[in-house]
Write a structure and sequence with these properties.
The protein is an all-alpha fold and 381 residues long. The protein folds into 2 domains: 18-348, no CATH class; 352-381. 75% of the residues lie in helices and 0% in strands. It contains 14 helices and no strands. It has helices spanning 18-25, 28-55, 60-67, 71-95, 101-117, 121-135, 140-170, 184-209, 215-235, 242-261, 268-278, 292-303, 308-339, 351-380. The longest helix is centred in the C-terminal third of the chain and has 32 residues, at 308-339. The protein is globular and about 70 Å long.
Length: 381
């Protein structure tokens, strides 16, 4: 579920973006074909992995562990994956604040389906959501900017988690290997990435000021605006920020539950670090990361001292849950969006207006209760 890619909103002089222009050209038939082919690829790759488990003698132990997994822990893993998907929906609705809740949830789930079934990467799946929004009449420049904010918001949670857990393991706050390469280095990478993005807006704006008006200057200013908007979301008190954290942490909880289902309970911190480093393999364009991600995760888990057989069994089951729940749920959402694509949508009022309206309603209810109490008090006496 981690997202590693470039920022998807580099705007041109007209306020749009090169990627956004490609989104506009993406048509219904092509998008549906991509998703269908991705799902077929997933089925074939899963069948291949299952065949290897049954055919290769050295993997029989893994198959035995999988077949003996505790069903209650597997149910917990499924619930955690559902919560992870709902976390992404909540993060989407925080960034696209004026989108109708039901429509926004379907777009967010469609993004998850494309991210799971199609070799798009994190930014690519967000771009599919941008296309769905532009198709309904959203301004391309604004949609591209908010899509980049969504991508950076979820990525920022990844980097924060990597930095905190890596440094926490190194100083002994969390149980895990004290090896510098397995604790301090990942933690420092997270810190450096955070500092880089904190400094980037000022650097890009100073660079843009020295450039003549044109595409590069517009792109630099847009990058600064996007990053500042992302950190503003992180700093602003908003209960919906839980969604961005739940999207990552609940997905990690799926892997933890799969370990418990396999009869193992390794420390949490090494699982988190192995998970995040292992997900770097998602840069390789394979549908669902089948084979590539599994090998990477298992390798990192073993490197962090976890039993290879248990790690392989837990990873395979985790990956199946983390792929098929968002893929199937998101596919249903995407098909509903395609069927209702000609239906107009009504944007919600800006959040400030919604707050003012709720406050006015509370005042009216309070005044009504006060009048009611005043009318009843003489009768009670």
């Amino acid at each position: 579920m981690l997202e590693y890619s470039t920022v998807p909103a580099i705007q041109d002089d007209s306020g749009g973006s090169s990627q956004q222009e490609e989104l506009v050209r993406l048509n219904d038939a092509e998008a549906t074909k991509r998703l269908r082919n991705g799902l077929i690829s997933l089925v074939l790759l899963v069948a291949l992995i299952t065949g290897l488990l049954l055919a290769v003698p050295g993997l029989h132990g893994v198959g035995d562990v999988v077949s003996d997994m505790n069903p209650w822990w597997l149910l917990a893993a499924v619930v955690m994956e559902i919560l992870s998907c709902l976390g992404y929906v909540l993060a989407f609705l925080q960034v696209f604040d004026r989108a109708p809740v039901r429509f926004g949830a379907r777009v967010a789930l469609s993004e998850l389906a494309f991210g799971a079934a199609v070799s798009l990467g994190g930014a690519g799946s967000v771009a599919v959501g941008a296309w769905l929004l532009v198709e309904r009449g959203g301004p391309p420049g604004r949609i591209a900017e908010r899509s980049a904010v969504l991508f950076l918001l979820t990525s920022a949670v990844n980097v924060l988690t990597l930095a905190i857990v890596g440094l926490g393991v190194w100083i002994g706050l969390f149980p895990g290997p004290g090896n510098v390469l397995l604790s301090l280095v990942p933690g420092l990478v997270g810190v450096v990435v955070l500092l880089f993005f904190l400094a980037l807006p000022s650097v890009t704006e100073r660079t843009a000021a020295r450039r003549a008006p044109g595409r590069l200057r517009t792109a630099l200013n847009a990058t600064a605006t996007t990053i500042r908007s992302t950190f503003e979301l992180l700093r602003t008190p908003d209960w919906r920020l839980i969604g961005a954290f739940a999207y990552l942490w609940c997905d990690i909880a799926v892997l933890v539950a799969c370990f418990h289902a396999a009869g193992a309970s390794p420390p949490l911190a090494p699982i988190i670090l192995a998970y995040q480093i292992g997900y770097l393999s998602n840069l390789i364009p394979v549908p669902g990361g089948i084979g590539i991600l599994d090998g990477s995760l298992v390798g990192m888990l073993v490197l962090y001292g976890i039993n290879a057989t248990k790690a392989t069994a837990a990873t395979i089951v985790y990956h199946g849950i983390a792929l098929w729940i968002p893929a199937m749920w998101g596919t249903v959402a995407f098909l509903i969006l395609r069927r209702t694509r000609h239906h107009p949508i009504d944007l919600r009022p800006p959040r400030s207006e919604r707050r003012a309206l709720r406050a006015a309603r509370r005042r009216l209810r309070g005044a009504a209760r006060a009048r009611k109490d005043g009318d009843e008090s003489p009768r009670t006496r």
